[in-house]
Structures are given as structure tokens and as C-alpha cells.
Specification:
This protein is α/β, with parallel strands linked by helices. α1 packs across α2, α2 packs across α3 and α5 packs across α11. The chain has 11 helices and 13 strands. One of its GO terms (biological process) is DNA-templated transcription. Belongs to the LysR transcriptional regulatory family.
């Protein structure tokens, strides 16, 4: 005997229910699902109305599932993941042999794009779709097969699979870089002379990344007591623009190893200071939870991971 339709949640309702029960927060669930808070709240309230049951209770500032929800959430979660799995499989068949890669625009333009032809030659049977975005996208909804995300650094430095997240490439640092001509204009020399002059920072224009405190952290770590430029004159919201500004001689930039190694190797940039700031986050490969790493995605991870390691070995 089939259940009345009012007892059957829609996929969106089930996903909202799953997310809120895991995260104990409507706002956190909304961020994860890329939905508005009112939409998630509406899904929950409609289910409570149709099922005539309370699904969550307040616990401090968080929510916790009721006994009713605890009894059914494992089945709801399993069905939700299975439906997402089916949708991804159907999408994969529709876009057969197309590998969709989610990546930050700066990493794509600075590192991936100049090397991508190597992957295409190595895997001619795979067509590549690059999806560059600065926001965290829902991998299933955007049909992303593998993504490279900046996530908190884990303690282990060994590459291994932990669920669907591939542990990071070696630890990165942020380093101060500038164009040789810019350094020459300040010091009369095209290359650092081995005797860093802290006074250079008071003369140089510091190129900032929007909504970050990289320069403040650098000063706190290595230049305590020296004045810090609290009101930046030049700010960009993408690392690729910061890199180009530094190469064109617009000031000192503070950038990750992976973004500057090619330019340093070509002589487009020099490093006036030896002090380097450890990065708090590292790039990690992730795949859709319901699918994991497909064979094409694993091929890309192996290739690009090796490219990143080779690049960082120059650091």
C-alpha cells in the first residue's frame, strides 16, 4: 500500500531537512544549499504542517532534531543521497566524457590554463569544462566532477584520501614580490642585495587583496614595531590581478607560492625579503559526496597534483 502523497517530501524539502539536522542551523543549511534562509525555513514548516509533527527544538542558539525526526532522518538522508547519485549519473551520461572542473579564477588563469594542454594530450578521450568561481558551488547541482578548494590545512602532510577530500599538496607560504624595475627604482638595484631594508616597505606601495589581512599578519609576524599601512591605496579582489599589478611595477605584493613561482622563474618578479608567511589554508581536491572521484576526475587529480607539487618544489 503506497503512502499518501502528503507524507512524501520533495527532494528540496528532504535536502533542507538533512542539512538543518546535520548543521543544527537554518542559516548554515541555507549557505550549504545556496538557498535563502526563508526558503529553508519554509521547507521545514511545510513538512511540519503536512506531517503534523515538530521536527526541531531550540537548544541555545542552535536547533536539534526531535525524537520524531531522529527516527526517520537516516532513511531520508539515504534516499536524498541516492536521488542525487541518480541525477549525477544521468547527467554524466548526458555529458559523457566531459570532465567539469571547479576552480578559483586566479588558480585557473595563473596555473591551470598555461598547463592544461599537457592534460589534454595525456588524456585525449576527455573533454574538459572549466567552471571558475570564487564562491563555493554545490557540486551536484552545478554538475562539477572535481573541484579544487581552499580549506583549512590538516595536520598530516601525506597525500591520502579522506572521504571525498584529497589531502593537500605541500604546505604553501606567502612571499613578498615585486618587479625588478620597481625594486631598482627604490634601491638602485634590479635584484635583492641580501641585506633587506625594512624602510623599503615605508616607501613602497603595498598591493592588498580585498577582505584579507595578509599584510597585517606579515607585519605582526616579521616586522613588529614598524608602521603598517592601514589604509591601502591599491586593492584587488583576485590574486591574478594582484600578480599582474606587481609584474607591471605597481608595488609590493604578498602572494602564495603557487601564484608567483612561474613569474619568479621567468625573472618577471623578484623577492626582496626572505621572510615568508605560512598559509593558513591549502588547496584540496573534492568530489561530489554521492559520487566520489570518477576515473576522469582521478586522472585530473593525479596530473594536476603532480604539476602543483613540481611547481612548489621550486619554492
Amino acid at each position: 500500500m503506497s503512502a499518501p502523497r502528503r507524507f512524501i517530501p520533495t527532494l528540496q524539502e528532504a535536502r533542507s531537512l538533512d542539512a538543518v539536522s546535520r548543521l543544527n542551523s537554518v542559516s548554515a543549511a541555507a549557505r550549504e544549499l545556496n538557498l535563502s534562509q526563508p526558503t529553508v525555513s519554509y521547507h521545514i514548516s511545510k513538512l511540519e504542517e503536512r506531517w503534523n509533527a515538530k521536527l526541531f527544538r531550540a537548544k541555545g542558539r542552535n536547533l536539534e532534531p526531535t525524537e520524531f525526526l531522529r527516527a526517520i532522518i537516516p532513511e531520508i538522508r539515504a534516499v536524498t543521497h541516492q536521488l542525487e547519485h541518480i541525477g549525477h549519473l544521468v547527467g554524466s551520461q548526458y555529458h559523457q566524457k566531459v570532465l567539469s572542473i571547479g576552480i578559483a579564477p586566479s588558480l585557473a588563469s595563473i596555473v591551470l590554463q598555461p598547463r592544461l594542454d599537457g592534460f589534454l594530450r595525456r588524456s585525449p578521450e576527455i573533454n574538459v569544462r572549466i567552471c571558475a568561481a570564487n564562491r563555493f558551488v554545490n557540486l551536484e547541482e552545478e554538475r562539477i566532477d572535481v573541484a579544487l578548494r581552499l580549506l583549512p590545512r590538516l595536520h598530516s602532510q601525506e597525500a591520502e584520501v579522506n572521504g571525498n577530500a584529497l589531502l593537500p599538496v605541500p604546505q604553501e607560504h606567502m612571499r613578498v614580490v615585486c618587479a625588478p624595475d620597481y625594486l631598482a627604482a627604490l634601491t638602485g638595484e634590479l635584484q635583492p642585495n641580501g641585506k633587506p631594508d625594512v624602510g623599503l616597505l615605508s616607501q613602497a606601495q603595498l598591493i592588498h587583496e580585498d577582505e584579507t589581512v595578509h599584510w597585517a599578519n606579515y607585519f605582526a609576524a616579521f616586522l613588529a614595531g614598524h608602521p603598517f599601512e592601514t589604509r591601502p591605496r591599491l586593492t584587488f579582489n583576485n590574486a591574478d590581478m594582484i600578480l599582474q599589478a606587481a609584474i607591471s611595477g605597481q608595488g609590493f605584493a604578498l602572494l602564495r607560492d603557487v601564484y608567483v613561482m612561474d613569474a619568479l622563474g621567468k625573472g618577471c618578479l623578484v623577492e626582496p625579503y626572505a621572510s615568508r608567511l605560512p598559509c593558513e589554508r591549502v588547496f584540496q581536491f573534492v568530489a561530489p559526496e554521492a559520487i566520489g572521484f570518477t576515473q576522469p576526475a582521478s586522472s585530473f587529480v593525479a596530473w594536476f597534483g603532480a604539476e602543483l607539487k613540481a611547481l612548489l618544489n621550486q619554492a
